Amino acid sequence: MDGSLLQAAPIDALAALVGLGLVVLLARLILRVAWKLVVVAALVAVGLWLVEVVAPPLVAATVLP
After folding, report:
1. Which chain regions cross the lipid bilayer (predicted)?
2. Cα separation, 44 vs 63, whole angstroms
3. pLDDT tens digit string along 3-55?
4. DSSP code of 64?
């Protein structure tokens, strides 16, 4: 082994495949969490919108006789 590129290539390819596998696993984990955050954000937005639509008539009915 004199350190030539031909001898180092299989190890570099293996390292690249392992690195790519780790990147794919990390991306899958991030996407698995991200869509849940999007769903929660959408539910919060819909909830706030409903409060904004429903609450004013209720408040007006309790304040004004």
Report:
1. 13-31, 38-59
2. 27
3. 555 555 677 788 888 899 999 999 999 999 999 999 999 999 999 998 888 87
4. -
Helices (H) and strands (E) in the chain, counts: 1, 0
Radius of gyration of the chain measured on its C-alpha atoms: 28
Token duo for residue 25: 């696993």
* Residue type present at position 23: V
- What pTM did the predictor assign? 0.51
At 37, list the tokens.
């955050």
Lookup result for tokens 């390819």: 13
